[in-house]
Automatic annotation (TrEMBL):
The lineage of its organism: Bacteria, Pseudomonadati, Pseudomonadota, Alphaproteobacteria, Hyphomicrobiales. It comes from Pseudorhizobium pelagicum. InterPro entries: CE4 (IPR052740), Glyco_hydro/deAcase_b/a-brl (IPR011330). Gene3D superfamilies: Glycoside hydrolase/deacetylase (3.20.20.370). This is Polysaccharide deacetylase. One of its GO terms (biological process) is carbohydrate metabolic process.
Amino acid sequence: MTFCLCLPLPALAGQPEQQPESLKPKQLLLVSFDGAGDNALWQRSRDFARANDIRFTYFLSCALVIERPAASTYKGPHHKPGRSNIGFAQTTEEARTRLAHVWQAHEEGHEIASHTCGHFDGADWSVGDWKTEMKSFRAVLADAWVANGAAADEPEGWRDLVKGGIRGFRAPYLSAPDSLFAAEREAGFVYDASTVTKGPLMPTETDGVTRFGLPLIPEGPKQRPIIAMDYNLFIRHSAGVENPSRSAEFEDRAYAAFRAAFDRQYEGERIPLQIGLHFVMMNGGAYWRAMERLATDVCALPDVACVTYAEAMEDLQSRPSDSSGL
């Protein structure tokens, strides 16, 4: 029997070595929503997901399941009772409808994660402040059906979901001081999605918390980097002022940036691509439409999975340690 210690031929100058397609992992696309408020957009996102083989992560703000007359039952760190940067549900009917969407999305395979309660900037918060807000999130959500006069409608398993099934966290304004990560670990969260990276990077684990970073991706005629999130596109395209007359133009720009970032990974290293949106139709819905076009085009491609953060963690942890980043 003859053995050969064979070394790979060097790549041609200027050309990266290509991994055989058969050995590449799946290309993951992670689309998430911050706030998860507007009930019409809950319905739209769930309907779209069913038709396009995609599962979303909803970073829920729990103030949105508190009816306005009961706002004083919530108090954020360093704020008076009844304060929230994103308001409250205007009626019990609105809150109940939202709770039903949360549960139905969970049943459909989507992920419910935490975006705190009052959507305050915690850049200067202590570990204790973060833990207080995280505790409020679970307490408010656990009792939400009862608080909105719908105890009889509370689904079996709701409290189990709130207690142990919500394991991901994104800080409002992407404010992620060191105190946040320490609080997440103590509060039972296993991953954070609050940071920003210079491009798509594999998540890393630090002190028991896996950190996903929203990537900077090239965008626009000058291909300047921008966070892959609708709000940042909104600021760049129209300085944060609604301009629906250019909605189609902004949609095309966003789609081109999303698709180029996706193709770069799909044809290359297969690092998961993350895109963040809000439950707001910025610039006439340009960025939602761009995301929907992307998902329609790519989620059915071979070796592509459009998944939640929790599913992505499972996939990455099953990969060889030198390729998963975890």
